[in-house]
Amino acid sequence: MTTYDVVPSVTDRDAEELWPVYDAVFGDQVDEGTWRNRVWDRHAARAGFRLARAHDESPDGERHLVGFGYGYTGERGQWWTDRAAEVLDAGTAERWLGGHFELVSIGVLPEVRGRGIGAALLRLLTDRVPHDRWVLMTTADADGPARHLYATEGWEVIGPGVEDEQVIMGRRRRP
Fold it and tell me: How far apart are CA 19 and CA 31, in angstroms?
């Protein structure tokens, strides 16, 4: 059985639990210390931070993290928001960036994909966020599972990504 939770702040223990899943899903060729210092600790300290987690329970009662998603309030002056403003046309950047919910990543272990965990994490992560605009960067592969997940949940491509083979997607909160 998969259980879910959402937390607005994290501890070192949370980061230690998250790292093996992050590494298995994204494999950025960085070590845990580099990931913590360059990415995680900065992101976790940002306003509006939210972490959604999915745990499976083993037959012996142990809970194991099998997926996660997180984001925070994106603002001008932050690295990704400023890079996105450079690649989007001025009108799109003005409408979408600054004070938006910035979905950084959703990761689900390969062995449990196809069970709806990614969609559940996405919904939990964005449920009750106060932001009316949600923005994320994803791969350009229109047939890939990430693009399919976001499109199914009402996200649309709003422009090119900050790197080749990426696009920026956005969604407005439904009333």
Answer: 9
Tokens of 27: 């494999």
Note whether residue 17 is domain-resident.
yes
CA distance 3 to 152: 22
CA-to-CA distance for 87 and 50, rounded, in angstroms?
26
Could you tell me if residue 80 is inside a domain?
yes
Does residue 25 lie in a domain region? yes
List the CATH number of the domain containing 94.
Answer: 3.40.630
Residue-wise pLDDT for 50-94, tens only, equals 999 999 998 898 999 999 999 999 999 999 999 999 999 999 999
How many Å apart are CA 156 and CA 174, to the nearest integer? 14
Q: How many domains does the chain have?
A: 1
Statement: the pTM of the whole predicted model exceeds 0.70 = yes
- Does residue 150 fall inside a structural domain? no
